[in-house]
Amino acid sequence: MYGKQTETAIAALSRLAEVWDGGSTRLSAAEIADQRGLPRAMVAKILSALSQAGLVSGSPGPGGGYALSRPPHQMRLREPYDIFEREDVSNNCPFGGGVCGVGEPCAMHDRLKAMQAAIRKLLEDTTFEIFRVSVQEEGLIPVAKGVRPELPRDTYRAAHPRRKRA
Question: Of the residues 41, 71, 82, 139, which has the fewest C-beta atoms closer than 10 A?
Fold first, then answer.
């Protein structure tokens, strides 16, 4: 769906949304990284890019910290996605060969178009307010780093780890 940088950006922004109080509360890159179970250096780099893009305000280093630059209900998931992802302008069909839009569509065409439309809708329609509400109003407690579920549940992640190539 999206790359590691986008995923990390959404994780960082969602954590800042969870603690949103008008921008008074600031979290360091290390706090966000530790609370989300992410590499500190990567979170610091992502926050720097988000700051340059105007999505967060703050500064790195001791005594620094970050907050959302505007209320979470005004920030869409599409914003970090647009910073870190590139549009694929290729018309080559990865499944049926040839060029998409020329000749008969491949067997996956309609399903891929529907999935692409659903992802666009999710990114455009979802604001970071959902994270603030879930923690501040609904009482969700973010899971600590390293905690494993007692019982398996559905996840959007791949069902099985990749196999090592010989």
Answer: 139
**Residues 32 and 44 sit within 8 Å (Cβ to Cβ):** no
The residues, ordered by sequence, that sit 6+ positions from 41 with a Cβ below 8 Å of its Cβ are none
Q: Which residue has the tokens 């966000």?
A: 32
CATH architecture of 4-86+127-136: Orthogonal Bundle (1.10)
| pTM of the predicted model as reported, rounded to 2 decimal places | 0.83
Write out the two tokens for 64: 């620094």
> Distances from the Cα of 99 to the Cαs of 93, 95, 103, 105, 111, in angstroms?
5, 10, 8, 9, 17
Q: List the chain residues with pLDDT less than 50.
A: none
List the domain boundaries for the chain.
Answer: 4-86+127-136
